[in-house]
Amino acid sequence: MTEVDSSSNEVWRPHVTVACVVADGDRYLMVEEEVSGRIAYNQPAGHLDDLESLQQAAVRETREETGWTVALTHLIGVHQWRSKEHGDVVVRFSFAAKPLSHDPQQPLDTGIRRALWLTRGEIAALGERLRSPMVLMSIDDWLAGQRLPLSIVASLMPGGSRP
Length: 163
Prior knowledge:
Keywords: Hydrolase, Magnesium. The protein is of the alpha+beta class and 163 residues long. It has helices at residues 54-66, 120-124, 134-143, and strands spanning 4-5, 10-11, 15-24, 27-35, 38-42, 45-47, 68-82, 89-102, 112-119. Strand 1 and strand 2 (10-11) form a beta hairpin.
């Protein structure tokens, strides 16, 4: 049964987001961004757009936020969390990806200050400056060997993948 907010007659929906854990040796691709007047750190991540597959969204967000073109290799996991920023539930699909090429001339998304490569220790040391606990969780899941085949996430959207 779908829950309806009786005050607005709107159906409740979580924010569906994607993120990429992009590793280069012991360093991970991160973004430094301005969020609600503070500096936060995150993997390349963002919302799923209409008519877009989860895989397409993950590759697009990584390119838009960092200038890096990546190839997805695995699904790391699906994480759920209530955002302290806006109070809504976020469902995040975290993918592993390998870097293919970088375009330093690529304009970065609004709010993104820069892309940088950090070790897991440097990321953990950011503490409360991480955008969410899902940042470190997805890296730790990847380091623990959690890798699901991309075929587990099927899409019937145009250009999507279906096993």
